[in-house]
Amino acid sequence: TVVIRDRHNNEKSMKLSHCFKAEATQADVFEKVGAPLVKSALEGVNGACIVFGQTGSGKTHTMLSPDGLAARIAGALVQPPRPETDDNDTTTETAQVDVKLSCIELYMNELRDLFEPQTRAPGGAARGSLRVYAARHGSTETGALRMPITCQADAVAAITLAARRRATASTNGNSTSSRSHAILTLQVERRTARATSSATVLL
Question: For 182-197, how does the pLDDT look when each residue is reduced to its tens digit (9 = 90+)?
Answer without folding.
Answer: 889 999 999 888 888 8
